[in-house]
Amino acid sequence: MDKSINLSVNIAGVPFKNPVIAASGTFGFGEEYNELYDVGCLGGICSKGLTLHPKDGNEGIRVWETASGMMNSVGLQNPGVEYFIANDIPLMRRFGNVLIANMGGHSLEDYVTGASMLSAADIDMLELNISCPNVKSGGMAFGIKADVAHDVVKEVRAVCKKPLIVKLSPNAENILEMAKACEDAGADALSLVNTFQAMAIDIRKRKPVFNNVYAGLSGAAIKPIALRMVHSVCKQVHVPVIGIGGIYTAEDVLEFMMAGASAVQIGTVNFNDPLAGKNVLEDLSALCRREGIVDINEIKGIC
Amino acid sequence: MDKSINLSVNIAGVPFKNPVIAASGTFGFGEEYNELYDVGCLGGICSKGLTLHPKDGNEGIRVWETASGMMNSVGLQNPGVEYFIANDIPLMRRFGNVLIANMGGHSLEDYVTGASMLSAADIDMLELNISCPNVKSGGMAFGIKADVAHDVVKEVRAVCKKPLIVKLSPNAENILEMAKACEDAGADALSLVNTFQAMAIDIRKRKPVFNNVYAGLSGAAIKPIALRMVHSVCKQVHVPVIGIGGIYTAEDVLEFMMAGASAVQIGTVNFNDPLAGKNVLEDLSALCRREGIVDINEIKGIC
Amino acid sequence: MRYFDSKVLDNQQVAEDIFVLRVERNGAEAKAGQFYMLKSWDKELTLMRPISVFKAEKDELWFMYRLVGKGTQILSLLEKGASIKLLGPCGNGYPCEKLSGKVAVVGGGLGVPPLCETSKQLTHAGVTVDAYLGFRDVLFGVEDFEPWCDSIFVSTEKGEEGYKGFVTDLLKPEGYDCVITCGPEIMMRKVAAMCAEADVPCYCSLEHRMACGIGACLGCSIRTQNGMKRVCKDGPVFLSTDLLWNS
Amino acid sequence: MRYFDSKVLDNQQVAEDIFVLRVERNGAEAKAGQFYMLKSWDKELTLMRPISVFKAEKDELWFMYRLVGKGTQILSLLEKGASIKLLGPCGNGYPCEKLSGKVAVVGGGLGVPPLCETSKQLTHAGVTVDAYLGFRDVLFGVEDFEPWCDSIFVSTEKGEEGYKGFVTDLLKPEGYDCVITCGPEIMMRKVAAMCAEADVPCYCSLEHRMACGIGACLGCSIRTQNGMKRVCKDGPVFLSTDLLWNS
Ligand SMILES: Cc1cc2nc3c(=O)[nH]c(=O)nc-3n(C[C@H](O)[C@H](O)[C@H](O)COP(=O)(O)OP(=O)(O)OC[C@H]3O[C@@H](n4cnc5c(N)ncnc54)[C@H](O)[C@@H]3O)c2cc1C
Ligand SMILES: Cc1cc2nc3c(=O)[nH]c(=O)nc-3n(C[C@H](O)[C@H](O)[C@H](O)COP(=O)(O)OP(=O)(O)OC[C@H]3O[C@@H](n4cnc5c(N)ncnc54)[C@H](O)[C@@H]3O)c2cc1C
Ligand SMILES: Cc1cc2nc3c(=O)[nH]c(=O)nc-3n(C[C@H](O)[C@H](O)[C@H](O)COP(=O)(O)O)c2cc1C
Ligand SMILES: Cc1cc2nc3c(=O)[nH]c(=O)nc-3n(C[C@H](O)[C@H](O)[C@H](O)COP(=O)(O)O)c2cc1C
Ligand code: FES
Ligand code: FES
Known about the structure:
The complex is a heterotetramer, with two copies of chain A and two copies of chain C. Chain A has helices at residues 31-34, 81-93, 108-120, 140-144, 146-159, 175-184, 223-234, 250-258, 269-272, 276-290; strands at residues 9-11, 14-16, 20-22, 44-46, 63-66, 69-72, 98-103, 125-129, 164-167, 189-192, 196-199, 201-202, 207-208, 214-218, 241-244, 263-266. Chain A is of the alpha/beta class. An eight-stranded parallel beta barrel of chain A has the order 3-4-7-8-9-10-15-16, surrounded by six helices. A four-stranded antiparallel sheet of chain A has the order 5-6-14-11, with no helix packed on it. A two-stranded antiparallel ribbon of chain A has the order 1-2. Chain A is globular and about 50 Å long. Chain C has helices spanning 70-76, 112-124, 185-198; strands at residues 2-15, 18-24, 35-39, 49-52, 55-56, 60-66, 83-90, 102-108, 128-135, 151-156, 163-164, 178-182, 202-205, 221-224, 227-230, 237-239. Chains in contact: A-B, A-C, B-D. Chains B and D meet through α1, β5, β6 and α9 of B and loops of D.
């Protein structure tokens, strides 16, 4: 990596050594990919999506490949906040980068309790997932209507002592109103997008592929839509924005940052290239050099 | 083609010899593709998007390839309703299949005037595009809010003597409310989806690719989202639905029909395979045979 | 666990739809029953494809696969010298080193190939192996079991070769210290039930759609007697008594 | 206009990033200045790629292309015998048959190859041709002009070969009955301006992003003196006086 190029960014007061963060749910707690490369080289890691209580997740097929993307219906399988704090945080801490706990929930109470527990633990930031489209009971609603989101963010904000990122769903009725509502309610940063609600049918079985019928679409396929959403949100809010959605390459990172993102998360690409985190970072500094970018923050929002 | 399999469908009283229709804006008025194969073999053809008055469309780059898809910002370039009626309808009539005039607009008045002119002409159906995301002045708004859509559909319905298809935008705030509003307002059928609002950035130029900044995403990339929207709309409305969005293969046609669509439109795939219309049809009858489908209407909505 | 570039040494069609791919091993490990995530594309397909180790030769890894969809289609077109990426070895594999006495390996369809390396490793561990191999119509890979097995029983559904019917009709678990099975779930369930009855331990190798292949995405989790388990990491091999067969 | 399968006869790298692809012609037509939409992929890329006819030989079509992105990368890897799909001939082409006397063809970069077939067809139409060919640093295709041209003038930006500077510095439109140009817009605008001054008719060949390539999608429309025109169907060749150079 080229040391003469500054890749470090700052989000809501938290310094990142570079803008490439592993996206929640695609990177476990970092352990597995750390067998392949030092995941501490990433700017940060978002934990898999936590809920207050442990969850088994969904039955049936959970992942399905689509054209330039994939669908998932993992359904927030996770060990619960308490187990995470006791067991996973210490392991994640060894990586030496920014530790972001990602949390979803089914009820306002769970969100608030979970957030206050997590924010008291040794994490750097909390990312509130108000968007997971997989959990039937609730889940969805928080991420669709701006006023509902406002309420949950406000309550969580009140108990959260760590910088709070709110992760938006592209299924929101109005992504701009949603972003503004979350900002108003006290979000220190926004991240977007989560997966798009989508469907696949197994024509031989004449049945939906997923038990839950719908599942979340991610990957390169969604990048152009995600980029549009990030761009329009960045023009409307004052808090920093983390771009997510089909980011596979260093070029994609620059696109999202030119659209206004302060950093990005990479998800699905980890499955396509298990060294994606490392590779994107290496390419990013080479690309910056080629494009004459000395400090990556220079190009932020120039589009 | 296998004559023992019934592919014919009926939409709002109009018989189609098969459920594969060329999508608006991707097929001109049929002339060009007719040089490559007899486009009369298709169930029907949607004309390129018309407006009351002729339009030059957008400046700058108009098409851009993306992962498993493309973006376009044609901006409804068209010769206007009057020219279309005088010159293109007679040519399209030679094909002998269902002639659907697709019409967009910038104002309620234009919609109403255009629709009454078209519905008096020799077309089989009118497809009202309330969704084109490319035209800055208006266009978008009609397709976003259900109440606005309701008004325009109602007024058009009042003057339209032909079966009226309303084409929905996936950018609608709530696709179900939108569908129901259009049904309530008198749509005889719905077609969905139009393109997704999306963005691309040329990182070398550090500028958006499109002069209008945002453009419409289509192609295989969007199929899983389109399928979900079609499925959920089909569960909510009683009028027939035409599925659109990334349909490339006979398998895709069956997926959309199993999700509840009465027919489909193919757009972007025509660029990937100029014989797509013919090929999808041939494959469809082979696929039906393989899957033991004697009448394609059997599998409609079984998911 | 490594992610590395390898070269195709050979890629032969051995039966209708069935191919054997040989790649440079590059020192990679391979316990019987483990698998690799493969890809020979860049981003045209999103995911890598899980394929079991058919044979682990000194400098080569062999995979036997059926052409079923886009990924295996691309694999099937690979020519000698082509590049291919491997992620692995993935999964736990069969505990060959812990077994002794007489073991039956029971394979069906594409569950057959992984049992070849398994038979070899069992033999090396001093175990006597009988193979029960079931096919739909055409046999593949059977001769590869010969060096490692005492007896080989073969069946086809319509009796084109060997016994006519299911391979489970031939199996008598009572005679074995352990049964190892890989194949369609319906077959493995039957084998597991027979072993339960006979009180013989039975290891099953599961399949599940996978995204990461290394335990990070929870795309392949299944419910077991001991809670949720990842087929790619905690499996693919499970004791039959741990399974719930929840599909 | 046909859409047909063809076979690659040869695909050679002729300079850094520059390749010449030869495919079976299968009786397809090819007027000078026309192009084909090519693809040698299935659905991995959405769109076909427009490439001009470099040479139309009896049984072969030749294309000269620069490796710039994903599509041309895939093309560059094609080997003899590979399948490729062609849609064309697309566009209007140069009106070679209507010209007479002395014509200058002025090409820059990848605008050079289409002028080779053009020079040939002009020669066959009894026209005398001079070629003005501008390159950045490395020459390609120049020798292919020799059979068809009276004089060939070559330039490179830093003078590595031929004249140092732009090829437009060498051109004097006054001496010609018509000028035909293909290359970067900035060059063609200059040529057009010089021709306008000298009152010599000038044909320009435009490039634009294309989806269908046959006039159906309006993805390549440009504003001209005569209204909106499709580069793929109404062009790519336009009289310079019809153009607005609106980019
Ligand atoms: C642990 C494990 C070991 C395997 N070993 C072998 C083997 O040795 N030989 C062999 O022929 N096959 C094996 N399979 C099945 C093999 O992975 C699939 O046949 C292959 O992934 C199909 O890919 P495709 O692109 O051709 O098919 P597609 O249907 O186009 O694939 C679409 C997606 O579904 C997944 N998929 C499709 N079928 C299966 C399946 N049966 N199991 C898991 N995922 C699937 C693909 O990986 C891909 O993500 C194994 C599967 C697993 C989980
Ligand atoms: C009428 C016409 C004739 C042409 N003739 C030649 C030729 O003879 N030799 C040659 O080397 N090139 C020629 N080009 C340019 C050539 O089409 C592009 O270089 C090529 O499409 C790039 O594809 P890619 O996938 O490698 O690049 P990418 O940048 O990955 O392509 C992405 C998309 O942009 C389009 N695109 C990229 N560059 C151009 C361009 N300059 N013009 C139009 N579309 C572009 C591609 O077709 C594709 O749709 C011609 C273009 C046109 C319009
Ligand atoms: C298998 C899988 C599991 C995911 N789990 C979560 C999760 O638990 N919490 C969350 O906020 N997002 C989750 N996501 C969404 C990703 O973090 C990311 O927002 C999305 O995949 C889009 O980015 P990508 O296109 O780079 O994958 C998951 C995505 C995938 C593919
Ligand atoms: C180049 C292009 C032009 C289009 N023009 C129109 C149009 O004029 N009117 C309209 O209703 N839809 C238009 N569309 C949308 C298509 O009809 C279709 O709804 C969309 O592309 C999704 O289908 P697909 O993925 O099969 O292309 C256009 C699409 C493309 C790609
Ligand atoms: S495939 Fe990702 S955890 Fe098993
Ligand atoms: S590329 Fe479609 S009209 Fe020219």
